Amino acid sequence: MTARDDGLVLCEDGLARPPWAAVDPMLRAYYDTEWGVPVRDEHGLYERITLEAFQSGLSWATILRKRDAFREVFCAFDPGRVAAFEEADVERLLVDARIIRNRAKIRAAVTNARATLALRDEGGLVDLVWSFQPVAAPAPASLAEIPTRSPESLALSKALRAKGFAFVGPTTMFALMEAVGMVDTHVVGSHRAGPTAPPRGLGPAL
C-alpha cells in the first residue's frame, strides 16, 4: 500500500481508499459497498442514528464488529419495538457484553425510537432528515478538505433535538449525513468518487 499526496492510500488491489478503510477487510468492505449509499427508510435511518450515537468517542470498527449484536438486542432496529423498552430493558442491556454498555447511549436509543414514532404524524423521520441535504456536493480534492460538521448538520442537529432526539450533535449528524449518502465527501481520487461510485438509490440499512 502506498500513501498519496491527497491523503488516500493506494491499496494492493489498485484502488484508492481513505486510511481508515485501507487495511481492515471489514472496514474496506463497508467503505466499498455501504458508506455513502443513500438510506431512505425509517428502520435504516433509525439504525444509523443509533449506531452513530454509540460510536461517539469510539472507533467505527468497534461498532461494525458489534453490529449484529446491536441488531439483535434492539429488535432489528424496529423503532416501534424499541420504543416499548422499559428501565428493566435498559438494565438488561447494561450487562450484555456484546454491545457498548453505556447507560446514556442505551437510553438515547429508546428515546430516539419514541421520537421517531412521534414524527410519523409529521411526515416521518426520513423526510425530516433528508430535508437537510445540501444542495451541492463538496468534491474534496484531499482528506484535509473534508469538514467534520457543516451548517446543514448543525441545523439537522437542532431540528432533531427539538423533536426530542438525543446524542444528535452536529459532528455526529455530519457523520450520519456522509454515511447515508446525504453529503458526498468521497475524495475526488477515491474509487468511490464520481461515476465509479455505486448506483444511487435505496441503500442497505447498514
TrEMBL record:
Zn(2+) binds at H186. InterPro entries: Adenine_glyco, DNA-3mA_glycosylase, DNA_glycosylase. One of its GO terms (biological process) is base-excision repair. It comes from the Bacteria. The keyword Glycoprotein does not apply. GO terms for molecular function: DNA-3-methyladenine glycosylase activity; metal ion binding. This is DNA-3-methyladenine glycosylase I.
